[in-house]
Amino acid sequence: MLRRRSFQTKNIFRTTREYTRIAFKSIRSISLVPYGIHPLSTKSAKSEAPLLCEPKEPVLKSKDIPGPKSIALKKKLETIQAAGTVEFFADYEKSFGNYICDVDGNMILDIYTQISTLPLGYNHPKLLQVFQNDQNLKALINRPALGVTPGKDWPDKLSNMLQTIAPKGLSKITTMMCGSCSNENAYKAIFIWYRNKLRGDNCPSEEDKKSALLNKPPGSPNLSILSFKGGFHGRTLGTLSTSHTNYIQKLDYPAFDWPVATFPKYKYPLDQNENFNKKEDKNRLLEVKKLIDSSACKSPVAGIIVEPIQCEGGDNEASAEFFKGLQKICKEKGIAFLVDEVQTGGGITGKFWCHEHFNLDGPPDIVTFSKKLQMGGFFHKDEFVVREPYRIFHTWMGDPSKLLLLEEIIHVIEEEKLLENVNETGAYFKEGLMSIEKEFKELLHSTRGRGFFLATTCSNAATREKIVVTLKKVGIQVGVTGESSIRFRPALIFKKKHVDIFLDRFHKVLKCL
């Protein structure tokens, strides 16, 4: 449950009809192009534009996805920049709710939502209104260097954010741009904190200052962050030393020789493998302790970073007992406990922060965020506030316009009771996936997850590829993770009717393999 906010709420419209009516009203009353909405007809400006609304089911107009227009655009893009990751080109003017429209006119049920970044789906009418306000529009176009000249309302905005969504017990925030730079700078905060503990009240020495400029100790100490196999924390040079999911992300880049522990590997179903999984937790925690002790001389561990659910590495889960054990080790060893909620934060697991499921003994030291929260950064305890200016700094230090969007997103999550929807519809979704798994045991196994943060594993990578490609041909967009798993990341507005559409088409695809 989100805590009581101090900013004023607006009227919330609950039904699809009301949503589309408001969207249409917004379209008529504002300049359309800056907000990603164009008239869909060729009538005069005085004529009413068609309403944006979801189709009843996916609509397919091209034989394949990507269609001919997407293929042509990709060829054009390839003359300018690398485009090997592009799947198709979207028409964001016509996308709405849980459906993304591509340039060939296909309306695709999106259960991946821009790598899990759209909490309210496409073109939500409440978000379309955010920058109609002149004050908000000025925050968008006069983007400040927040570390130097923030706007007059910035302290109140951050205070409201802390009051409404900050993990309980974390009273400070450092804003950033994205998930990678959030983790990168959180590492820096940990190293500064750790070194300050060793110095006591003493300031950095002249030797510290001079040696740091030469990348030598003591100014550049041999400290480390312990991470886990299968973990992913970003693609910047520092975070890559803690990311362990795919060689293509790391190949040819120098990396720190930091300790890497084994994340628990559970057997499913969980309720039928409790003894095995408890033993797995115990062994993995013992390994973490040994790695910390063995690294003490070469590269002392200043902190541990872990995802509540390993995302890119295969949607790997661990128990509440495992995370409690990790936190206990951090306290015993005097090191920081960093929980990476870049992908799991924002309500998709049924709680605003996934680590809330674990009933930890107090808050983590640092919680990083991005994606569904639109901006990046990390919440942290008081002792991780840096003493000297410019220790953690870059030009933007976040984006006020993204915080304006986040405020409206929080309004809708609260008023529409979307966390309740995630829990109720998520349970329905998971039950449906498990039923299909039982029917197609030779193709699927290990269905898992919380809320809308769900995954299932295919028998092999080739089978997964066939399933994902075929799903797209029938109008369903999903994601992949790990070696052979499919991941589902719908928007918080996903309903049972959308689950039914997916399950029906998923079943037909599997039956044809």
UniProtKB/TrEMBL annotation:
Superkingdom of origin organism: Eukaryota
The protein's name is (S)-3-amino-2-methylpropionate transaminase
The record's annotation in NCBIfam families points to:
GABAtrns_euk (TIGR00699)
Sorted alphabetically, which SUPFAM superfamilies does this protein's record hold? PLP-dependent transferases
Q: What is its EC number?
A: 2.6.1.19, 2.6.1.22
Q: Name one GO biological process term.
A: gamma-aminobutyric acid catabolic process
Organism of this sequence: Drosophila ananassae (Fruit fly)
Q: Give the record's keywords alphabetically.
A: Aminotransferase, Pyridoxal phosphate, Transferase
Q: Which InterPro entries does the entry mention?
A: 4NH2But_aminotransferase_euk, Aminotrans_3, PyrdxlP-dep_Trfase, PyrdxlP-dep_Trfase_major, PyrdxlP-dep_Trfase_small
State a GO cellular component annotated for this protein: mitochondrion
The UniProt similarity line reads: Belongs to the class-III pyridoxal-phosphate-dependent aminotransferase family.
Q: Extract the GO molecular function terms from the UniProt entry.
A: (S)-3-amino-2-methylpropionate transaminase activity; 4-aminobutyrate:2-oxoglutarate transaminase activity; pyridoxal phosphate binding
Q: What enzyme category does the UniProt record give?
A: transferase
